[in-house]
């Protein structure tokens, strides 16, 4: 079956000019990113997307991001970026969005009759690049406190949430995709499934929107640092392993999409998977 499009995908580069900690070689991450870009440039890709946490911070966040994005920008294919919680360590939200070239932290685009949707799972939260007095910071603080009272597994400061405004926007984008007969693939930094301590604080709300749309077939995220996969109600959930997480080996993937099939061709520590689409 002929491939209708292909894209490169990277998660959690977490480049920083600091010493290796545990299994994370922060300085080496930028060299891994350069090798990944070279590999992507040897393929015919429609676009490349990085799923957030391109830096680790905190000492020189803006400078490190400029360096990492300079390498990422070497991709010949179109590039897209997502914000992650580590991107805001050492930089505020406005600075990060400006460096990433984003007018808004969530957006969508179309390729070959498919709709691709980028979420901001850090929009609300205490690691969102926002001042403590900001409304979205306070909402995230309150949400986190409620989840802690419930002993929720994802009641962690490094998780964020999607705002009501972004949820309304998501519903409208997916409604439009469905009306046009487009299948949709969604990207975000935070995890939705399988259940873990890395889930978006209001993950159930987002999943409900996906399931009600009739158009979403897959969701790709980073944040967890290890490969994970789940399938629920016709939707495939992929977690891409972190590039920073292995001292020597790399981690990224090329995803090929056909009418009824998605192939994740893992590189380095990222596993490969072939799945059939139910929708």
Protein model, in words:
- The chain is globular and about 45 Å long.
- Strands 3-2-1-10-11-12 form a 6-stranded mixed beta sheet, covered by helices on one side.
- Helix content is 27%, strand content 23%.
- It contains 6 helices and 12 strands.
- The protein has helices spanning 29-41, 61-72, 93-100, 135-149, 164-179, 203-213, and strands at 5-10, 47-50, 78-81, 107-111, 114-118, 184-188, 216-221, 228-232, 235-239, 251-258, 261-268, 273-276.
- It has one domain (5-276): Metallo-dependent phosphatases (Purple Acid Phosphatase, chain A, domain 2), CATH 3.60.21.
- α1 (29-41) runs parallel beside α2, α2 (61-72) runs parallel beside α3 (93-100) and α5 (164-179) packs parallel to α6.
- It is an alpha/beta fold and 279 residues long.
Distinctive features:
279 residues; alpha/beta; Purple Acid Phosphatase, chain A, domain 2; 6-stranded mixed β-sheet; 12 strands; globular
The CATH topology assignment is Purple Acid Phosphatase, chain A, domain 2
Oligomer: single chain
How many separate helices? 6
Assess the beta-strand content as a share of residues. 15-25%
Structural class assignment: alpha/beta
CATH architecture: 4-Layer Sandwich
Low-confidence stretches: none
Strand order of the largest sheet: 3-2-1-10-11-12
* Percentage of residues in helical conformation: 25-40%
Write down the domain tally.
1
Order of helices and strands: EHEHEHEEHHEHEEEEEE
Radius of gyration: 18 Å
For the secondary structure, the number of strands is 12
What is the class in the CATH system? Alpha Beta
Outline = globular
* Average of pLDDT: 95
**What is the CA–CA distance across the termini?**
17 Å
Please describe the biggest sheet, giving its number of strands, its sense, and whether it closes into a barrel. 6 strands, mixed
CATH homology group: Metallo-dependent phosphatases
């Amino acid at each position: 079956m002929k491939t209708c499009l292909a894209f490169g995908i990277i998660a959690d580069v977490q480049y920083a000019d600091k010493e290796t900690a545990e299994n994370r070689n922060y300085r080496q991450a930028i060299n891994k990113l350069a090798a990944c870009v070279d590999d992507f440039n040897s393929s015919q890709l429609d676009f490349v997307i990085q799923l957030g946490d391109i830096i680790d911070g905190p000492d020189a966040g803006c400078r490190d991001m400029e360096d990492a994005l300079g390498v990422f920008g070497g991709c010949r294919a179109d590039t897209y970026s997502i914000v992650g919680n580590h991107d805001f360590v050492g930089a505020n939200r406005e600075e990060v969005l400006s460096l990433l070239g984003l007018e808004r932290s969530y957006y969508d685009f179309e390729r070959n009759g498919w709709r691709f949707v980028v979420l901001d799972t850090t929009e609300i939260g205490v690691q969102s690049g926002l001042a403590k007095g900001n409304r979205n910071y306070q909402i995230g603080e309150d949400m986190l406190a409620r989840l802690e009272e419930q002993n929720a597994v994802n009641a962690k400061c490094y998780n964020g949430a999607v705002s009501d405004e972004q949820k309304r926007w998501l519903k409208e984008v997916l409604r439009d995709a469905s009306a046009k007969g487009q299948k949709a693939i969604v990207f975000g930094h935070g995890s939705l499934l399988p259940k873990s301590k890395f889930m978006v604080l209001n993950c159930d709300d987002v999943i409900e929107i996906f399931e009600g749309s009739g158009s979403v077939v897959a969701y790709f995220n980073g944040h967890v640092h290890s490969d994970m996969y789940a399938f629920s109600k016709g939707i495939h959930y992929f977690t891409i392993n972190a590039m920073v997480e292995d001292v020597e080996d790399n981690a990224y993937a090329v995803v090929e999409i056909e009418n009824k099939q998605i192939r994740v061709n893992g590189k380095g520590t990222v596993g490969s998977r072939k799945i059939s689409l139910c929708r």
